Amino acid sequence: MDDPCVRGFALDRDRRPVRAAAPLPPSRPQGLFRLLWTLNTNPLAAWPAHHYEEPIVVGQTPLGRFAMVSDPDAIRKILVEEECNYRKDDLQNLLLKPALGNGLLTSSGSAWRCQRRAFAPAFSMRAIASHASVMWMEAEALALRLARYNDTIVDVSEHLAHSMLDTLARTLFSDGFGHNPDDFRHAATRYFETQGRIDPLDLLGAPAWVPRLGRFLSRPALEFFPKVVAAILADRRGCLRSDDATDFLDHLLAARSEETGGPLSKEDIAANIITFIGAGFETPANAMSWAIYLLSLDDGWRCKVEREVDTVLTKGSENILFEEFVTIRALLEEAMRLYPPVAILSRLALTDHILGGREIKKNTTVIISPWVLHRHRRQWNQPECFDPVRFMPKYRGTIPRYAYLPFGAGPRVCIGAAYAMQQMTATLAALIHRFRFDLAPGHKVRPVHRITLRPEGGMRMRVSRRR
Ligand code: HEM
After folding, report:
1. Summary mean pLDDT of the chain
2. Confidence band (pLDDT; 50, 70, 90) for 234?
3. Residue 2 clears pLDDT 50, i.e. is over it
4. Could you tell me the pTM of the whole model?
């Protein structure tokens, strides 16, 4: 068998470079109605071809002024060096705040700072390492569940999401959620599919009292989330915890407001419970679904990954070092390059200034899109081709830091990045050790963007036992 590291690009069974499913970008900017339709149905298809070639595109659409930034130096300025020139934009808040309130993802200023400081210990390397055995156990439990479906077709993203929720319920919220994880998954999916669609009325600046269909349809989900919060808090109050049993919920309840010096408000505690469950299960489940899909396209990489997990896992999970899964990590990183679970980081410019030689006016929406950036012709060789070799240790260091942003960067970088990488590595290793996944015949893979980037209609795959 050819070694893909030597061959340069992964090849499919017909020996063509493996091109992953993606909507074709329009050849030129779309008119107002077409653009509104695309943003509502699949914003991934809104960016014209030249966005994937130019470092910065500044433009004016009927919806407002925007700058799409794909220049790594300019991105560093936005997210790190000059981040105080920007704030999270209104559209993002409109989509997220109904469910996530003023939690860590959606807050700003001193409210954000005190939350970030208070939660950091729950995501220290030590805290994450302490979750390793639970993550392995949950990965094994998922493998056992999938074994029941041998030689049948399942939606792997559904099973992965369920497993991620189970893991959160035993790590960050170690007393569980008091609800079946599937109920939360259904409510979150409903929220993404309804409130998560960009409403043309919002883009056109219609007043808030004009009814929006998405908001109406997301109501059942919004009524369900407080029940989860109540159950989680009720369980914690009824349970005496020893000092060393500190999980994320303990840090959340112990956090102090910078303004009052007292505990966070009930609303902020609730907002963070939903934020961490919501942010913590969907994104890793999607990243792994894409990784499994990509592997099913390429026998060379499939063999390579199988060889690695078979070798490492024979030692028994208690002796495993996560660093040994070099190929799994490269696969995950390449999957998040092609399908970044968070496909847009958007900010509002607070001042007139110059960025990468371009004039950015106050109130311009500045967009950094990992979807566009990770497929940008100036940053990547054959960007649309699946090739994990880019992330193997020999080449990983050649990728500019701000050309690859699955977890964002700067002060607002994903707090759960290391947690997610460890959990995804354990889960993929356990699954690939036992199963082979093949795309279900006739299943059309289509990435869509609804707050997160997900496979439309799930990822239907045939699961067959390897051993
Ligand atoms: C593959 C998995 C994940 C991906 C790709 C991902 C991606 C991201 C990105 C890109 C951001 C920055 C957003 C911005 O700058 O506007 C972010 C922020 C955040 N993520 Fe993640 N995330 C993942 C997993 C997780 C997990 C497992 C958790 C928690 C358990 C989590 C919790 C958060 C929170 C709370 C923030 C807001 C941080 C802040 O603003 O200070 N994420 N994530």
Report:
1. 88
2. confident
3. no
4. 0.92
Which pLDDT score is estimated for 230? Answer: 84
> Does 406 contact ligand 1 (Cβ within 6 A)?
yes
Contact 430, 139 (CB under 8 A): yes
What is the structure's pLDDT at 8? 45
- The encoded tokens of residue 295 equal 């592997």
Q: Could you give the angle at the alpha carbon of 235 between the alpha carbons of 232 and 236, nearest 5°?
A: 90
Strand partners, 139: none
Write the residue with the smallest CA distance to atom 7 of ligand 1. Answer: 407
Pocket test for ligand 1, best of 102, 334, 367, 414 (most atoms within 8 A of CB): 414
- Whether residue 427 contacts residue 451, with contact meaning beta carbons closer than 8 Å, is answered with no
The two beta strands, 435-439 and 447-450, are unpaired
Residue 13 or residue 123, greater confidence = 123
Q: To 10 degrees, what angle do helices 90-100 and 219-237 make?
A: 50
- Pairing mode, strands 460-465 and 152-155: antiparallel
Ligand 1 mean position to 285 CA, how many Å? 13
**From its phi and psi, is residue 253 left (phi > 0), alpha (psi between -120 and 50) or beta?**
alpha
Please report the pLDDT score of residue 256 as a whole number: 86
Which ligand 1 atom is at minimum distance from the Cα of 420? 27
Domains of the chain with CATH codes: 4-465 (1.10.630.10)
419 touches ligand 1 (CB under 6 Å): yes
Give the Å distance between the CA of 408 and the centre of ligand 1. Answer: 8
Q: 311 CA distance to ligand 1 centroid (A)?
A: 32
Q: Averaged over 138-161, what is the pLDDT? A: 96
Amino acid identity of 297?
Answer: L
Nearest CA to ligand 1 atom 3: 283
For the Cβ of 283 lying below 6 angstroms from any atom of ligand 1, the answer is yes
Provide the pLDDT for residue 375.
Answer: 97
**What's the pLDDT score for residue 148?**
95
- For residue 322 the two structure tokens come to 């996560």
First to last CA, the chain: 21
- Locus of tokens 């050849």: 27
**Ligand 1 atom nearest residue 370's Cα:** 10
8 Å CB contact between 308 and 327: yes
| Distance from the Cα of residue 439 to its chain's centroid | 22
**Ligand 1 in reach of 412 Cβ (< 6 A):** yes
Q: Which ligand 1 atom sits closest to the C-alpha of 409?
A: 15
Tokens of residue 410, six digits: 């700067």
Q: Does residue 345 line the site of ligand 1, with CB under 6 A? A: yes
What is the tens place of the pLDDT at every residue in 379-416? 999 999 999 999 999 999 999 999 999 999 999 999 99
Residue (of 361, 312, 363, 367) closest to 342 by Cα position: 367
pLDDT at position 316: 72
